[in-house]
Write a sequence for this structure.
């Protein structure tokens, strides 16, 4: 089956030309797929009936179905467990903020990166998501809630820069004026630090926000919890980040999960401040979510605020991430693990 929703408008033109169709049909079809988000080919009433029949025989329309949906009674956070056409599962989380709805989406089934604190990597890597499977997480959440998704964070299951081609394709499709037309300025991409891809991304000069999962301030500690650091150390990673900002003029966001007694001391706060000094950055402090295998515990509130204060005194802007959806296991990877375990 041809995966129509992963195709760009010019690829659709080529496909349709092969079926003897004029060029303008591609724009119509693209609009049905990405703007009106048709659920069947029959709906595409401005396409000739014969073409609709041809397409329905050789192309797939929907990539995902909702297998479970949990709504937090605390803050309205919605968590979706999606089933893919091959029976695999991924998750998305819709978070409600004053400035609008933000959707956290997955880029892979499982993950190869092996970060010690992360639930999504524990059962290993299964496969990359296609561009359409990434996109449909956004479309389905929008349709299901009937609300606008105003921003997207690629912070769900998977390492987006390890599924680079499909993620770039997703970024192109979602920003298309003939589709959802969501500006790259409202999209964050989070990476554990695949340095060669950061350089490549810099050359593309997209307006997305790059988030770097840092979590430690020296190589021994970072390599201990994030195997990727053995390939590219902190200095190399931050060099790539400086290059990225130089090219794109975009502020980089650094994620730092605070783990009690591991990386949450005053010494680490000072070290973090000196690593980031003089760069265009923002630090997101995240109380670590408990994952059984790692045995890491959240830092106590006072230590988190003390850490933030040290950064502030050194001129580094830092915010503490609010915990949302605490009653529905909203942290990444948790629902999929449950589903796979059943
Ligand atoms: N692979 C990408 C995106 C997915 S993880 C990345 O590494 O950035 C999204 C964010 O959640 C990352 O910053 C990741 O380090 C963080 N994270 C993973 N497990 C966590 C946990 N148990 N507690 C807090 N943050 C966690």
């Amino acid at each position: 089956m041809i995966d129509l929703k992963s195709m760009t408008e010019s690829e659709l033109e080529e496909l349709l030309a092969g079926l003897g169709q004029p060029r303008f049909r591609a724009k119509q079809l693209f609009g049905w797929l990405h703007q009106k988000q048709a659920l069947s080919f029959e709906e595409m009433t401005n396409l000739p009936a014969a073409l609709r029949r041809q397409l329905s025989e050789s192309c797939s329309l929907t990539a995902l179905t909702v297998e479970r949906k949990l709504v937090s009674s605390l803050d309205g956070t919605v968590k979706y467990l999606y089933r893919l056409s091959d029976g695999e599962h991924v998750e998305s989380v819709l978070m409600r903020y004053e400035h609008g709805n933000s959707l956290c989406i997955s880029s892979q089934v499982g993950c190869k990166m092996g970060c010690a604190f992360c639930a999504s990597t524990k059962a290993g890597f299964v496969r990359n998501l296609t561009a359409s499977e990434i996109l449909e997480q956004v479309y389905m959440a929008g349709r299901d809630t009937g609300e606008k998704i105003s921003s997207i964070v690629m912070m769900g299951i998977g390492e987006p820069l390890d599924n680079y081609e499909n993620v770039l394709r997703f970024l192109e499709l979602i920003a298309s004026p003939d589709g959802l037309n969501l500006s790259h300025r409202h999209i964050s991409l989070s990476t554990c630090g695949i340095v060669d891809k950061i350089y490549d991304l810099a050359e593309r000069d997209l307006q997305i926000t790059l988030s770097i999962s840092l979590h430690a301030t020296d190589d021994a500690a970072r390599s201990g919890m994030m195997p990727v650091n053995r390939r590219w150390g902190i200095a190399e990673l931050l060099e790539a980040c400086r290059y990225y900002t130089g090219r794109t003029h975009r502020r980089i966001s650094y994620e730092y999960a605070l783990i009690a007694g591991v990386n949450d001391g005053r010494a680490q706060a000072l070290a973090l401040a000196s690593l980031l000094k003089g760069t265009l950055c923002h630090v997101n402090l995240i109380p670590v979510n408990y994952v059984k295998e790692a045995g890491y515990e959240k830092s106590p509130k006072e230590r988190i605020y003390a850490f933030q204060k040290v950064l502030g005194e050194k001129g580094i802007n830092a915010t503490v991430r609010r915990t949302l959806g605490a009653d529905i296991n909203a942290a990444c990877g948790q629902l999929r693990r449950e589903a796979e375990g059943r």
Q: What stands out?
A: Residues 131-145 form the longest helix (15 residues). The radius of gyration is 21 Å. The chain has twelve helices and 14 strands. The domain at 65-341 is CATH 3.20.20.70 (TIM Barrel).
